[in-house]
Amino acid sequence: MVVFVVMVVAQLMRGEGAGTIASAAPFIHDGATMSAVLMGATIVCFSFIGFDAVTMYAEEAKDPKIMPKAILLTVLLGGAIFLVAAYVTQLRFPDWNEFAPGGDMQYVEDSTLPIIGNLVGGNVLMAVLTAAGFCATLASGLASHASVSRMLLVMGRNNVLPQKAFGYINPRTHTPTFNIVLVGAISLLAIPFTLELIAAWINYGALIAFTFVNISVIAWFAIRKGRRHTPRDIFSYIVMPGIGMLLTGLLWANLHADALTGGLIWTALGLIYLAVITRGFRKKVVAFDENQAVTGFNKVVKVPVDES
């Protein structure tokens, strides 16, 4: 990415593209309507989910206290890379018609990355960026695979799912092997679908998570803990999560119709399952205690609650 950015900056200074490295055009222009920005945000949302997957490795961290910093750094560093790369690329290619059918390069569905690589650095950079794209896809898949497996482990350990299978830890590898194999098998079912549809479905799950994270902050701190009487508490535990819910709601309004349909079916199945295991919502699924000991793969640690 550094090589790519340096090459693009050099081309901009030679007068190519927008012909400048300092411009507000990538952020503000005639085509940047609010509806277009919100529609793009629901798509780009797919690129940023994953920072929360860091939390799934809390039990394997040397010190769980580092998790909040790890999440924040992941968001900031990842966001900075996205912002810089997108900014210089937009200046170098201000007109998307360069990638349209009939242009200098053959249009590739779902990806302009090889075309951008070729136009910036020829066949060599095109090959490098394409290979990097494949590597990033594999890395993303492995990270998601591992984090989902560990989420299922927690659900199994808390008897939300059958504990014998989902709560199983392989004594030799200290990993939830049953969950890993199961997630891999289910993931293979995604092969026939388009990237657009998969991204839309993932966004539904991400928006569900982001919405309920904000609801949980209000429910736990403001309501259950009574942290709502000082200006600081009101701002931290009511205003900020309320703003988060509002912004997430704007993304909900622009979600892909197929994702909304599939997601609602998935949610309905989950509610039915929840009703069964709670005997009609009369029994708690799991009780959360902020001072409870969490059993790790190789150790037992006390997990503190970081209220920030």
Helix fraction by DSSP (H/I, runs of at least 4): 55-70%
Shape: globular
What is the straight-line distance between the termini?
33 Å
Task: Tell me the total number of β-strands.
Answer: 2
Low-confidence stretches: 290-308
- Main sheet attributes: strand count, strand direction, barrel closure: 2 strands, antiparallel
- Please tally the helical runs, counting DSSP H or I stretches of 4 or more residues: 9
Layout: helices, strands, pairs:
Layout: H1 2-13, H2 34-48, H3 67-92, H4 113-157, H5 163-166, H6 177-187, H7 195-224, H8 231-253, H9 257-277, E1 293-295, E2 300-302
Antiparallel strand pairs: 1-2
Helix pairs in contact: 1-3, 1-4, 2-7, 4-6, 7-8, 7-9
Membrane topology: Multi-pass membrane protein
Protein name: Amino acid transporter
Keywords: Membrane, Transmembrane, Transmembrane helix
Would you mind describing this structure in some detail?
Helix content is 61%, strand content 2%. The chain is mainly alpha-helical and 308 residues long. It has a domain at 196-287. β1 and β2 form a beta hairpin. The protein is globular and about 70 Å long. The two termini are 33 Å apart.
